[in-house]
Amino acid sequence: AYDGPSKSEVLAVRQQYLTPGLITYYRDPLLLVEGHMQYLWDETGKRYLDAFAGIVTVSVGHCHPAIVKKVQEQVGKLQHVTTIYLHPTIGEFGKKLAEHFPKGSGLTQTYFTNSGSEANEIAILSAREFTGNQEVISLRNCYHGGTQATMALTAHSTWKFKTNPTINVKNALAPYCYRCPYGLEYPSCGLKCAKDVENVIKYETSGQVAAFIAESIQGVGGAVTPPPGYFEIVYDIVRKAGGLCIADEVQSGFGRTGDRFWGFENYGVTPDMVTMAKGIGNGAPLGACTTRPEIAAMMKNRIHFNTYGGNPISMTQGLATLEVIHNENIQQNAKTIGDHLKHRLLELQERHPLIGDVRGMGLMIGVELVRDRKSKEPANTEAADVMEKAKERGLIIGKGGLFGNTLRIKPPMCLNKDDADFLVDTLDEVLLELKR
Ligand code: PMP
């Protein structure tokens, strides 16, 4: 049993000594003290089904025994040396990652970082050096990080500081079908939003851009899933303007979308660069940017160094995570359980008018709540209430979107069918209770 400080003590110390910028979910924050696979326990011993995975990070299960064993061994042997010396794990992991990219893509060279923000920083820097162009295009409603350059990419006012010294970023319309910026419907829309990128380049840039960066499915933005064909059109436009195409796979990679290992593969495109974090390491502070040799060579233009990037502990955890993804058919599970979940959530939508939209792929699902299906007024306080009541019943989910009205269901990918049923049944009960 847990014998550490009480919740109020933990909270008080945090408030006294840590940055006040730290936010917590829930009116009464959760103190979590133990995890195993898809479950978490609080200080009282209460168990929760974790359907948010530490914000889509714990890909194959909390404290997965096979991963814990390998990391513990490595910690006891050698923890840190930096890349100025040789250690076998970094090359081994780089090789394994390269084997996961489509054949002929040329995506073979990896720069390891400690976070997704850093991975995106490297991608943008390399793209600018390679193309000699300055301007970068990202999508409205995207999230690419909290460092200065990635905050500039991120397109939600809630995540941008007033003083953000933006790098030169232009935001194109988000392929957000449920709230189509043109009020059109797929496929009769003719993918007008994708073609908008051409106008952004024509009217808002010099005509030549360094890069286009996009999440294959927008995560923080609420599982906004671009329609088929979207990326093909955009990649074509961007490449004609001299830019590189960057796929941010921080949330959508490593099998999460079920059908494919990478989110971009669902769209039949091949990016010039892929950035990763979160699910790559099942919770390790680990990020990566993979690209082709001629683009990767740009990092030799000056000395660039990252003290912890590629450290033996993170590399061991990343390698062990990949092994589990394969040994335990994680991607197939994301597909099977994800399909089941989505099917049941769509049934729920028929009975609960609050559910305006159910979207996503595999185990990356968004449920957008609205007060009125016609006006689509965001039901943000209702979403917060659903989260609170779900927590009381032992279910942890996330929320996202600019208005915080989209429930985000992105569990560790070891979720089983009973868990998925518990999840939907719990949401059903909670929505019924809200109606009363
Ligand atoms: N890209 C995406 C798609 C993300 O969701 C996030 C984190 N939410 C990041 C980048 C930034 O990652 P990190 O917090 O590790 O810097």
From TrEMBL:
Protein name, per record: alanine--glyoxylate transaminase
Source taxon at top rank: Bacteria
GO terms of molecular function: alanine-glyoxylate transaminase activity; pyridoxal phosphate binding
E.C. number(s) listed in UniProt: 2.6.1.44
Needed cofactors: pyridoxal 5'-phosphate
InterPro entries tied to this protein: Aminotrans_3, Aminotrans_3_PPA_site, PyrdxlP-dep_Trfase, PyrdxlP-dep_Trfase_major, PyrdxlP-dep_Trfase_small
Subunit structure: Homotetramer.
Key words, A-Z: Aminotransferase, Pyridoxal phosphate, Transferase, Transit peptide
Homology family: Belongs to the class-III pyridoxal-phosphate-dependent aminotransferase family.
Pfam families membership: Aminotran_3
Sequence intervals crossing the membrane: none
The encoding gene: dat
Broad enzyme group: transferase
